[in-house]
């Protein structure tokens, strides 16, 4: 087992995928000589050359359109969208072409395109650099949508996404790029859990916290704070946002009977709304209380100095747990007095 940051794990995953298949090519703005804004592609141009690690013009629609052409010719393009908010100029290509060509051609044309997106907030960035656009792509039939939360998943899931014949939107929480964890670089890819499976990160009995990406870390902090008050929280990392592994989710809900779903994106028509609706359809008779959402606010992403008020934090999660447990706000108050709040 190697200990590395999430960013280094992504770099290792790209390197191994390119070694395994010479049809894997990388495209993006400044990914070659510079190694990308976050240095995720650092050193890959030196190893594989400019024909496979391609610095593109600043034109996201053109990048995705080029990837579609490469996929038609049998390549497996991996795109880096420099920041989450820059993906919108490519939206038409992704929704109208990437997501539909396999279906439209009755399977004759495959679109094995992986679109990597440094994603979400928490780094004090400028406007258009901290978006959470996942709901747009979850709503789009024909796309797989994945959001990783730790180095091991970053390494494994990225390789699985590149090897998949389906187009994958691959969200990378940029505020976790420097977080470290163990990564097994030697285990065969076939032995890894499929990227579509949710993961029980922490077992519990009183309520289930469901989330993904950087919010998994916040949920684990909330579970630790709640444990000090004698409340046992189960934490589920969805990992895949489309399709969602509802078997794992439903099993957790049936164990606890209470649910909180959290994400950074806006509340209205967000991923949490769909997850809660699906839980209600599958597990209504097991629910002891109405499920609760903890999300970003329904506003454009705020300036960096205000983002701490927008992002769901420990206290907001614990307040939601209080509500599903029908308790006074003892958990959120306890987090402040014990120093658990960050």
Q: Tell me the number of strands.
A: 14
Integer average pLDDT: 95
Shape: globular
Q: Which H/E pattern describes the elements?
A: EHEHEHEHHEHEHEEEEHEEHEHEHHH
Largest sheet: 7 strands, mixed
- The proportion of residues forming helix, as a percent range, comes to 25-40%
Report the C-alpha radius of gyration, rounded: 20 Å
Strand order of the largest sheet: 3-2-4-5-7-6-12
What is the count of DSSP helices, taking H or I runs of 4+ residues? 13
By secondary-structure content and strand pairing, the structural class works out as alpha/beta
Distance linking N and C termini = 30 Å
Task: Describe the 3D structure.
The protein is of the alpha/beta class. It is 36% helix and 20% strand. The chain is built from 13 helices and 14 strands. The protein has helices at residues 6-20, 44-48, 60-72, 91-98, 101-104, 134-138, 151-163, 215-227, 246-256, 271-283, 307-310, 314-325, 330-337, and strands at 2-5, 24-28, 53-55, 76-80, 114-119, 144-147, 168-173, 180-183, 199-202, 207-211, 233-237, 240-242, 259-266, 292-296. The strands form three sheets. A seven-stranded mixed β-sheet has the order 3-2-4-5-7-6-12, sandwiched between helices. Strands 9-11-10-13-14 form a five-stranded mixed β-sheet, with helices on both faces. Strands 1-8 form a two-stranded antiparallel sheet. Helix 3 (60-72) runs parallel beside helix 4 (91-98). The longest helix has 15 residues, at 6-20. It is globular, with a radius of gyration of 20 Å. Mean pLDDT is 95; it is low at 338-342.
């Amino acid at each position: 087992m190697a200990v590395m940051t999430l960013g280094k794990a992504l770099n290792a995953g790209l390197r191994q995928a390119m070694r395994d298949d010479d049809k894997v090519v990388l495209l993006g703005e400044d990914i070659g000589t510079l190694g990308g804004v976050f240095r995720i592609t650092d050193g890959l141009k030196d190893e594989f050359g400019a024909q496979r690690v391609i610095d593109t013009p600043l034109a996201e629609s053109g990048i995705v359109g080029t990837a579609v052409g490469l996929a038609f010719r049998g390549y497996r393009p991996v795109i880096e969208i420099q920041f989450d908010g820059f993906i919108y100029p490519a939206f038409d290509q992704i929704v109208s072409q990437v997501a539909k060509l396999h279906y439209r051609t009755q399977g004759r044309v495959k679109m094995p395109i992986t679109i990597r997106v440094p994603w979400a907030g928490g780094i004090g960035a400028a406007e258009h650099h901290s978006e959470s656009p996942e709901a747009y792509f979850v709503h789009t039939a024909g796309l797989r949508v994945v959001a990783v939360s730790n180095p091991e998943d970053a390494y494994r899931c990225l390789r699985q996404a590149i090897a998949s014949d389906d187009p994958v939107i691959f969200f990378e929480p940029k505020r976790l790029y420097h977080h470290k964890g163990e990564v097994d670089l030697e285990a065969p890819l076939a032995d890894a859990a499929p990227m579509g499976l949710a993961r029980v990160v922490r077992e519990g009995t009183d309520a289930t916290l469901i989330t993904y990406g950087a919010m998994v870390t916040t949920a684990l902090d909330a579970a630790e704070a709640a444990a000090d008050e004698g409340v046992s929280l189960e934490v589920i990392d969805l990992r895949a946002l489309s399709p969602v592994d509802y078997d794992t989710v439903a099993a957790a809900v049936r164990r606890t009977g209470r649910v909180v779903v959290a994400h950074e994106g806006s509340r209205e028509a967000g991923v949490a709304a769909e997850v809660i609706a699906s839980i209600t359809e599958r597990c209504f008779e097991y629910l002891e209380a109405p499920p609760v959402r903890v999300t970003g606010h329904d506003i454009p992403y705020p300036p960096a100095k205000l983002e701490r008020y927008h992002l769901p934090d420990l206290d907001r999660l614990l307040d939601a747990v209080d509500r599903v447990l029908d308790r006074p706000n003892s958990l959120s108050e306890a987090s402040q007095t014990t120093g658990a709040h960050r």
